[in-house]
Amino acid sequence: MEHQTPNKLPDLLDQIRSQYDLLSKRLRQVADFVLHSPSGVAFGTVATLSKQAEVHPSTWVRFANTFGFSGFTEMQKLFKNSLMQEIPDYQERVRSIKDKQKEKENGQVAGLSVSSLLAEFAHANALALDDLATSMSDENLKKTIHILVNAKSSYVMGVRRAFMVASYFAYALQHIDQKAYLINGMGGMYDEQTSNFEHDDVLIAVSFYPYAAETQVVADTAIEKGMPLIVITDSLLSPLAQMSSVSLVVKEAELHKFRSLSSSLVLAQTLSIALAYELEAKKEGS
After folding, report:
1. How far is CA 178 from CA 75, 150, 226, in A?
2. pTM over 0.90
3. CB under 8 Å to 244, separation ≥6 — which residues?
4. Which Pfam families does this entry report, sorted A to Z (predicted)?
5. Whether residues 180 and 115 fall in one domain
């Protein structure tokens, strides 16, 4: 693949997305990391980034060469310059606060108290929620509500970490008198729970990296039935995003290697309440 070397980070990220399917398996691992954590690329070393992406250090060099750079250092400058020109994102701001909390007057690292840990997580989530409010596409939100308003029944699917969001979403929909069903696969009965899918229903799939195969199978079934697919995920590279009617990408707070679910839950709550208002307006207008 030949590329014109980008001189702006958004241009590089666009190239990575457009060429993603043409990359080798190892280069896709690097691409996943780059797209999910550009700030990590800006401040990491080849050694640390290789461990995090689970690739050999030479893979980062090959990745940079693939997109027209002479090496990793030249590509990394693009990330550093971009972040220096912008207001630090919420993850960088949280990291800065964490570093300050760890400093003692004698310069030694202090253990974090429960109250300071709570402050870190609360602040990280506050910043993530602020990002959610400013970055979520209004067009995608309107399209999501339009699909939900016109659906006969809503099915909600999410496993492992995503299960909490999916179960809450189904609960919230049921409390606005919508026909909503949680697909939980209890007893391995995914086939039975999806047997009533019809083309005028909707599937809401919640899926975060690493993307669950179970959710993919249920989504495939919904697509075969001609159902619209609403996806809540963490990247447009999610397999479900590429087959969805609408994708809602959420950037959760991540601290001490733990990812929050606050933003996804707020999104589910917002959509449920917005749907309730829309249904009420529809009744009044009929």
Report:
1. 50, 11, 20
2. no
3. 205, 229, 230, 231
4. HTH_6 (PF01418), SIS (PF01380)
5. no
